[in-house]
Design brief:
Elements (H helix, E strand, L loop, with lengths): L1 E2 L6 E2 L23 H4 L29 H5 L25 H27 L1 E2 L2 E2 L6 H11 L6 E7 L5 H17 L3 E6 L4 H15 L1 H6 L4 E5 L4 H9 L1 H4 L3 H8 L12 E6 L2 H12 L6 E5 L4 H9 L5 E4 H12 L4 H33 L1
Parallel strand pairs: 5-6, 5-8, 6-7, 8-9, 9-10
Antiparallel strand pairs: 1-2, 3-4
Helix pairs in contact: 3-14, 5-6, 5-13, 8-11
Length: 371
């Protein structure tokens, strides 16, 4: 029934107006509630809890939950298997098996024996504190022989055609050659086709004299013809008249004792120190091909393979290249130099490394034996 808001009479629920007073019954229905007004009426999600809410609807107390036995369909007096306990990691064996330990000991002894033999071989290569090298090559022997057979006061032209950029490598060869020439008391004449050539020549001469002062004082003072610009043209002029091609002809003539009309045949030996293949080939074309004076060449290891054909055709009488030839030449001189010092340092480092490896191998053998 619907009550009329005006007169209070009751009317059927489907009536739209009051049957007594005729007032509209549509406004009599309650207005819709806002969401904010009915939020408190929305039931919360069911939870499982205990206490005073245990009897509420959709709530299952913890003491009424099915047991492990009931879930598995077992009798009520049986209990489920206890949860598996975590297994402890297996402990490592206290020692190697006898067969494995024996094999490891044998292998370690073989390694130790090999290291001892290697150390003995390195130690046997020392002679009087200087590391020994293999037999010198034919090129090294030929260069040594050409200087060794020079007579006293022989004239030797030395061309310094390298720069400070390659000075470290070329000085390994230049200094033993210069010392050998000073020991033979040859009259040295320096020339260069490089602007810095006179500087590297002076540096090599000072360093050699500082290492062998007695030999440098007994030898004649070298004569510097200076830097000759022009490459091919300079070499043609030098081959015709070294004095006329020099930057100071008068001083050069007084120092060398040569006259302007004398050519390169006035020298007994020509030595070229170079790190440039073009410079070396120019010397061969302009000088070696026109003069019977022997040409000995000392070059960097990088261009040595390109210069070997000149030596095979006898245009270059001897070709030295790189650190091995420098060390071999010092061995022939029986006078240690910078190449020998470098070899000694490398050998000491090798011995130290072998000592560390031997100590580690011996320690491993002892530890395996104790097991």
């Amino acid at each position: 029934m619907t009550r009329c808001p005006e007169c209070g009479a009751e009317n059927p629920e489907d009536a739209e107006v009051c049957q007594v007073c005729g007032e509209s019954l549509i406004l009599a229905s309650p207005p819709p509630r806002l969401l904010s007004q009915i939020q408190g009426l929305i039931p919360a999600e069911p939870v499982i809890t205990t206490g005073r809410l245990a009897d509420a609807r959709h709530i299952i107390p913890l003491d009424q939950l099915p047991t492990y036995s009931e879930l598995l369909g077992l009798p009520s007096d049986s209990e489920g298997p206890p949860p598996p306990e975590p297994s402890a990691p297996p402990s490592p064996p206290s020692s190697f098996p006898s067969g494995l330990a024996k094999k490891a000991r044998v292998h370690s002894l073989w390694v130790l024996a090999g290291l001892f033999l290697l150390a003995a071989w390195v130690g046997a290569g020392w002679k009087g504190g200087v590391p020994a090298v293999s037999l010198p090559s034919d090129s090294v022997k030929n260069a040594y022989t050409f200087i060794e057979i020079l007579r006293t006061d022989a004239r030797v032209l030395v061309a310094w055609d390298y720069d400070p950029a390659t000075q470290g490598e070329l000085d390994l060869l230049a200094r033993p050659l210069l010392y050998h020439l000073q020991r033979q008391q040859a009259q040295l004449t320096f020339v260069s086709l490089r602007p810095f050539g006179p500087d590297v020549a002076a540096d090599a001469y000072v360093s050699t004299a500082a290492r062998h002062p007695a030999t440098a004082q007994a030898a004649p003072v070298p004569v510097m013809l200076g830097f000759l610009p022009g490459e091919d043209a300079a070499l043609r002029a030098l081959s015709l008249s070294p004095i006329a091609a020099s930057s100071a002809p008068r001083l050069g003539a007084l120092a060398t004792g040569l006259s302007p009309d004398q050519d390169l045949e006035s020298f007994d030996l020509i030595i070229l120190l170079t790190a440039d293949f073009r410079s070396a080939s120019t010397w061969v074309e302009q000088v070696a091909g026109r003069s019977p004076v022997p040409l000995v060449m000392a070059s960097s290891a990088a261009i040595a393979p390109l210069l070997r054909p000149f030596e095979q055709t006898r245009q270059v009488r001897a070709l030295l290249a790189g650190y091995p030839d420098a060390l071999a030449y010092e061995q022939l001189l029986k006078e240690p130099g910078i190449a020998t010092d470098l070899a000694a340092s490398q050998t000491w480092v090798s011995i130290l490394f072998l000592g560390v490896v031997l100590g580690a191998a011996l320690r491993s053998v002892i530890r395996i034996g104790r097991r």
